[in-house]
Amino acid sequence: MVKFSSYHYINPKEVESVSVCKTESEYPYDLKVRMKSGKELVVSYIQICDRDRARDNLIIDIQRALREEQVSMSNVLTRIENELHIIDKRQLRVWRQLKQLLGISIEED
What we know:
Layout: E1 2-4, E2 8-10, E3 15-22, E4 29-35, E5 40-45, H1 48-102
Antiparallel strand pairs: 1-2, 3-4, 4-5
């Protein structure tokens, strides 16, 4: 989960877009996050530099979270691959021992 301002926590996978706009109000600078579900989250700022800083930090946090998830998945796949390799070695050793115990010989063509 990524923190959006101090009001919202969002799932980075669900973010469709991040945009900025200017309105005519007491807090004229808006930072909007549109979710894939269609929901739109808006936080308004008084100064443009605060909004831009928040936008940059949000984008960096989203990219970091997505990258961490990819690395995590890659690590899990590597561990699974290593475990399968170990299991294959063990099974081969068990089959060879069983072949010796039963006195089975395999003829190859």
